Amino acid sequence: MEEGAGMPRRRSPPLHPQIQARDEGAGVDRRRNPRLHPQIQASEEGGGMAHRSSPRLHPQIHASEDGAGLTRTSPVESASLPDDDDMLREILLRLPPQPSSLPRASAVCKRWRGLVTDPKFHRQFRAHHGKPPLLGIFEFSNGWNVFKPILDPPDCIPSQRFHLGRYSQRCHYILLDSRHGLVLVKNSRQDEVVVCNPITGHHRCLAVPSELRMDNLGGAVLCAAGDHGHVHVGCHPNPFKVVLVSTATSANQPLAAATSANQPLACVYSSETRIWSNLMSAEAPRQFIDTGVPPTLIGSALYWLSENDLMLKFDLDKHILAAISVPPVTDGTYYRNRRIIQAEDGAIGYAILSYPSFQMWQRNVNGQGVATWLHPKTIDMHTFLGLPSQTGTVLGWLLGYDEDTDEIFVYVRPNVYGVQLKLMQSRKLHETSCVNPYYPFKSFYTPEQIMLLRLNRDVDVRLLVSYLCPLQFSPTVCDILFK
Question: Which Gene3D superfamilies would you find in this protein's record (predicted)?
Answer without folding.
Answer: 1.20.1280.50
